[in-house]
Task: inverse folding
């Protein structure tokens, strides 16, 4: 089954404690992306990747890092999380830029 | 910055009625997509319309695009309770590889 898998689904942590949210897709998609969703703001793109070893900033990249060492995986790293990064995060993938995106089920992060 | 903005923010209709929502955007685009989200779940792609297309249909969905006005509309005909969800437009901008979403329209279909 074609899917985008994010882990964990829920996480409560404290300010400053590094965390990684994993994302994996099984569709051989080239384009992968991370979004955060906050009430009233819709989805905002954090980082995206056009292909392996090619990543670029979205509209809200501050405080986040990503890597794309393999085609299927695109982890999101918060080196020093802060409370303003409390949000619902989605990973998505598509064949190429501008193509329909397949979304994961989301990761709800709470940073205290 | 937010590229797309949906209007209205919320919509409540009776089952069987049509639902129309609009999306406006700021910069030139390659295509525009509509997505549905059920209650905090992942978004599901509904339809993609290219910048050189004016109208597209998929089942009970009808999408229009007016690039001169930088706007799009999504019409859901003969709505059902299962159409209750939030709907988002997303624009693939011409000058970069980002995908920008609006804040969404929340549609409630009353039985």
Result:
């Amino acid at each position: 089954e074609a899917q985008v898998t994010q882990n964990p689904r829920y996480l409560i942590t404290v300010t400053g404690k590094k965390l990684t949210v994993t994302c994996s897709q099984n569709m051989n998609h080239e384009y992968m992306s991370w979004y955060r969703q906050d009430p009233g703001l819709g989805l905002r793109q954090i980082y995206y990747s056009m292909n392996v070893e090619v990543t670029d900033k979205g509209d809200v990249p501050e405080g986040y890092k990503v890597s794309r060492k393999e085609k299927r995986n695109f982890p999101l790293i918060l080196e020093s999380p802060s409370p303003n990064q409390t949000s619902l995060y989605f990973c998505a993938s598509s064949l190429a830029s501008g193509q329909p995106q397949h979304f994961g089920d989301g990761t709800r992060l709470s940073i205290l | 910055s937010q590229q797309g903005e949906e209007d209205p923010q919320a919509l409540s209709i009776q089952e069987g009625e049509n639902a129309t929502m609009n999306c406006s955007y700021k910069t030139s685009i390659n295509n525009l997509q509509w997505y549905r989200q059920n209650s905090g779940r992942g978004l599901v792609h509904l339809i993609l319309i290219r910048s050189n297309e004016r109208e597209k249909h998929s089942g009970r969905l009808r999408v229009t695009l007016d690039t001169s006005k930088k706007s799009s509309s999504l019409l859901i005909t003969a709505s059902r309770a299962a159409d209750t969800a939030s709907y988002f437009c997303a624009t693939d901008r011409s000058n970069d590889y980002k995908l920008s979403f609006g804040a969404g329209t929340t549609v409630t279909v009353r039985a």
User: Anything to note?
Assistant: Residues 16 and 78 of chain B are 4 Å apart (CA to CA). Chain B touches chain A through 25 residues (CB under 8 Å). Chain B has a mean pLDDT of 93.
